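A quick aside before the break. I want you to see a complete sequence-to-structure record at least once, exactly as it would be stored in a machine-readable document. Don't worry about memorizing anything.
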Amino acid sequence: MALAAIASCALTVGVAVVLVRHRVAAQRMATLQSQAGVLALAGGAPRALTAGEHVYRVGSGRPRVVGRAVAALVLAAIPSGGDAQGTIAVAGRSLLYAARLTAVGRVVVIRSAKLAFAEWRPFLGSLVLAGLGGAALAALLASLLARRLIRPIGDLSRATRRVASGEPGVEVPVSGEDELARLGTAFNEMSAELGRARESQRRFLESVSHELKTPLTSVRGYAEALEEGAVPAQQAGRVIAGEAARLQRLVLDLLDLARVGRADFTVDRAPVDLRVVAAQAVARHLPRARELGVALNDSTADGAAALGDEGRILQATSNLIENALRVTPAGGSVDVRAEAGLIAVRDTGPGLAEEDIPRAFERFYLYDRYRSERAVGSGLGLTIVKELVTAMDGTVTAARALGGGAEFTLRLPTG
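That is the input. The structure line, written in tokens, reads:
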């Protein structure tokens, strides 16, 4: 930055030199014209080539008459007759001239077009001082600005390395409202979100490990008891089969959740008849509902259209129906309703507490909350529903149903 500032000052000085040179040249020409006017008032001078034609050379001293050969070349190079001024080339040299007409002829004054050092001297010191002062000031300002920029960038760099090493709660100080302040704020938000994600991942892994450990311990225990003849084979087989089914469900849900989170996970955006989806989901779970003694009903309205992926909507609806059947006691009912852009699943089970509603779709939240009170699944079903619906630009909500039970509602775009 200092080099850029100094280069900028050097460019400014260079432009100033060009402007000064132009000004000095214009001043020299004005002086030459004034000298020509003064000499023209004298009416000629001795040693003229012909009557009234006089060529003088001027410089730092008094005007001097030039030799006949040079005078002839000068007169041949300038326009004939009348007043004139400008630049000519004589014998390979560039000359300034000014010609003025008198009563008895013309007076021509010439001088070298090249600027002499003496003409630069009054300006040279000022240009050097201005350049050095500007460069020093530019370097100072650049240093201050660089420190203003480098300090927060250095803080960000160190904080980034701390975050990369796994340190939680890393923040950088933020002051002002400029771009660096916004960058620091964005970093702090990212660090906080990363901390929450790591904590969520830790809790998730702990929950999964626990849920894997429990059925595996049961399977191992019954396998050892069966080997020792401590339990009947039928009883052991029944327990082992149940725990294996629980493990299978958990693994399948984990796989579904992993697929949803992958970058290559895609969903369609096509018109879907939600009546058809609701009917398919009900038909899929109707045998299980009959086994449980639960009435599974399907009520749909005309024009129940939406945009989304039919297979993903069916999967989400099936998860909700399965969850409802699990908690609904025998003699209860589960109602599936489809409308334009909406599928709702309502049950007559124990319902949800008010504080459960905002966290109903968190992984393992309802599972940990109610596993000692009621039948629960893998703890991931509702999370998968939310991920699927969100991928289709929709929303899913939980609520307490009127008269008891719970109601889950999928809302999807309609156009």
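Two observations worth writing down. Residues 2-118 form one domain. The chain has nine helices and twelve strands. We'll return to this after the break.
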